Amino acid sequence: MSEINENLANSNKQAILSIKNLSVSLPARADRPFAVEDVSFELFPGEILCIVGESGSGKSMSSNAVMGLLPKPHVKVAAGEIIFEGRDLVSISDADMQSIRGSKIGMIFQEPMTALNPVMKVTKQLEEVFQSHHLKLSKKEVKSKIIEMLDDVGLPDPHIIGNSYPFELSGGQRQRVMIAMALALQPKVLIADEPTTALDVTTQAQILKLVADLQKTRNMGVIFITHDFGVVAEIADRVIVMKLGKIVEQGSAEEILNRPQHPYTRKLISTVPKLGAQKKAPITSEVVVCVRNLFKTYGSAKKDMFGNVGRVVHASKDISLEIRKGETLGLVGESGSGKSTVGRCIIRLHDSNSGVIDFQGQDLLKLSNAEMMPIRQNIQMIFQDPYASLNPRRKIGDIITEGPTIHGVPKAQSWKKAEQLLEIVGLDKYALKRYPHEFSGGQRQRIGIARALAMSPKLLIADEAVSALDVSVQAQVLELLDEIKIKMDLAMLFVTHDLRVAAQVCDNIAVMKLGEIVEYGATYDVFNNPQHEYTKSLLAAVPGKEWVVPDLSEF
Amino acid sequence: MSVESTPNQAQQSALMAVLASFWFEFRQNKGALYGLVFIGILAFVAIFADLITPYDPIEQYRDVLKMPPVWAEGGSWTHIFGTDALGRDQLSRMIYGSRYSFYIGSIVIFFCLTIGIVLGLIAAFNRGFIENLIMRLMDIILAFPSLLMALALVAILGPSLENAMIAIAVVFIPHFVRLTRAQALSELGKDYVSSSKSMGASTWRLMFINVLPNCMAPLIVQATMSFSSAILDAAALGFLGMGAQPPSPEWGTMLADSRQYILSDPWMMGIPGLAILFTVLSINLIGDGLRDALDPKMKTAKS
Predict the structure, then answer these.
(1) Whether A92 and A213 share a structural domain
(2) pTM given for the model
């Protein structure tokens, strides 16, 4: 499909949007002079152009420049042209830009909750779009148009949705409303800035399909910004790869994905986790932790002082699992499935309602806090957000040695060990005297791993440990985790929503849905022969599942 | 990470960088800069009061009662700010009065910070009954008009400067408790706290080593602002005869002493009044500047 589309576009049609030698300058104190440097590309009607790159590559900046949404005056277009319908968007007045924005070029954002006004009903926000462009439409016409739009983006019961506030809608519904808003005035170009990054995988699949369908029926040009090569494989006709503000490679999706030329593209694609799991021999070593019939609810059904009955959420319903020495058990599921809760119950950050957590012969749930102390050393956790999981006011050394210090290890000894640990995770020992803000996300995650290892744990719980990282950094951290697991013979509970990552690192997998494990088995079996409907739908929703990641290792 | 820099140098330069960026942000606010200069001069005067005062502040020169300041008609350079109704040198009293202001501000803030932080942290770490108890108590204190509450407390404790300071501290504490609790609650939700917990850190350790340092920025700003309010309230209590007692040269008390001469000799009230005005204004301006510099949300855009 992509090639036909592209040939059509190139031969018969004129570019609808062309960007020539665009440079966007950053303020003087930034880490580089230009956010976007000498970027040129064209967008043709009826195609989806993916701009892909890691964080800080300038992919959002280039599209914001098109929309005139740069945070002036600190960041501004320094050179180049953005030609749209024969006019240069860089030099036109703010008023003219305003009339183009929304009506001819639409945009959707990553986080629909913040992009929608939280105190305005959906219909009202959509009406605003019409009002701000001074269209001579009667109230009635606008109303019927809005209903039609909401219907177009696949929202059931447009009347009910239109009468809701954004917080009453789910993430997918909000994103659909955003899309309806962006497309309200039938723009010729749609810019989508990571529109599915904050969504669950099944919702993401639906939104991707919606964008692709609308693009086809309206023959729009779509600029789709993403960091995820799976998404690229799913919808792109053409791909632009950006690195540090420059375009390193562009071409058809098929070319870039399967025969990348530039070393950076090759590196990025080679770090994309492959979806196919390998068959592994079952692990028969001793069981480190065995969870049986774990129940955990949030909230209580008791009446409060005003007589309101509380809502009970079952975050964990009759969960049973076991992890053996040297095994990585993947706990996968969508947000709200209770996968993180299970991890936190095992480490006793949350109290459980009932059940047994048998850790080397002791039931953790029956222990008092004092009895729990010696066991805490054996179970450690790595957290999702490397920015929130390190105390910003403490030095790395203090952070890593905090655990050992609490357990009475002398300072000199624990600092010595911290130095070794930093070496293991690939940082040099001077880092001990620095503060977290001096490190990048990937480095911080390494520090988080070093902190967990400082206690010499037997069980490591990785709670979405790589979800916040760029794909190439993610690959490094995954490799590090694997190395450590083998070296220290750890048991690992790997909580993740990313099936690609799970397929790559896990020996066994438990699929969770609404607090229950719906499928539990060897990774190979779960991926190749899923039994439960939910697992099947999850696997079907993985973006770019038909794309076989090429083996680029020979270079 | 450059290999050449030793840890110590790195640490120093990191600290320098933090200070430099703080100073850069603070300097952006011209008002704060003027405030800082004024308070700096005032602090100098207060510290070296013994050396710069021309006269003893409570000695009465009975031959020059109610002498106008030097710029008014009938003034003289012997008493630059004139003398009061008992013939005491106004300039000397003003200079010693600045000591009282700093004394009152510091002591009140010290009590507010320590008690406010402890109660706020206890409330944040013990959700439920204890939290409700503390916070509702604070709500009750807040429900009273602050000066009225302070007056009532002084009436119970007996009028003296020390009791006035206690009363003012009690009135101010709820603001600190609420701020600490709110800040601590948002920090408690972050994973670095979960991490410490999972390692078995005691509540004590979580409170004071992990959470508190991350709550300090808004508390410092609040403390600065309250410093000026404390001076103002102490002056008000002094004016009402419930604060510093005569003959101590406290600015509020000076106002009270000269109240009956406001029509005949307005400068007698004017000088301490203006001193209070400028001190409070300066400290508030500094507080604004501190907030700009310490609150990341108000920082100017950086890379």
Answers:
(1) yes
(2) 0.79
